[in-house]
Amino acid sequence: MSTMQPIRNKKDIERLKKYFLRRGEIRNYALVVMGINVPLRISDILGLRWENVYNFTVRDFKEHITVGEMKTGKVNKIILNESTKRALQSLGEEEGIVKGQYIYKAYTHSTEPLNRVSAYMIIRKAAEELGLEEVGCHSLRKTFGYHAWKSGVHLGLIMTIYNHSSMEVTKRYLGIEQDDKDEVIRQLCL
To answer: Which one of 27, 138, 142, 147 is the catalytic residue?
Structure first.
C-alpha cells in the first residue's frame, strides 16, 4: 500500500467535496470537510458524537471541541471553523442532530459509527473516480497541515497542532516535495 499524500491542489479539494454533494452523500461530504479542517485522525473523527460538536442547551455548534486522541492519548482542543460548522449543519438537517448518536453513522447499523475501513473505501472510490492518486482518509488530515504550511503557518505550530513529537515527523508528514522547495526559491528572488 502506498503512502497517502495531502491533496495539494485546492481545485481537487473542491472537486472531492462536490463529488459527494452531486451524489447526495451529505454524510461523506461532511466527513471530507471536517477531515480537511479539523486536524484529527479519521478514527478520532469517526468516534465523535453530536454532543461533542453541538451544544443542545443553546442549540448551536460549539466553538471548540476537546478530543482525547485514540492513538496518542493526548487531549487536543480544536476550534470548529465555519466550513466545518456549515457541513455539520447540512448533515444535521439531513439526518438529525440527536444527542448520543454518532455524527458519522454506518448506514447498515444506524447506532454504530462508520468504521475506518468503510471510510477509507468511500474516500478511495471518490479519489479514483476523480483521478486523484495516493488519496485516502489520512490524506484529509495531511491536507490540513499542507495548506496551513503553504499559507505561511510555521512548522512548529503545525507540529503542535498535530501533537507530533518532532519537526522532522511533521516535515515528512506534510509530504513537502521538490516543487514546493523550488517555489520558495523561485519566489524569493533577492
So the answer is: 138
Average pLDDT, the chain: 92
Indicate if 164 belongs to the active site: yes
Q: How far apart are CA 10 and CA 118, in angstroms?
A: 25
Pairing of β 75-79 and β 64-68? antiparallel
Active site residue 173: yes
What residue spans of the chain are helical by DSSP H?
A: 10-22, 26-37, 42-46, 50-53, 82-95, 116-130, 137-150, 155-162, 167-174, 178-188
User: Of residues 8, 17, 27, 41, which has the active-site annotation?
Assistant: 41
- pTM, whole model, 2 decimals? 0.91
CA–CA separation, 85 and 30 (whole Å): 9
Residue 109 falls in the annotated catalytic set? no
End-to-end CA distance of the chain: 42
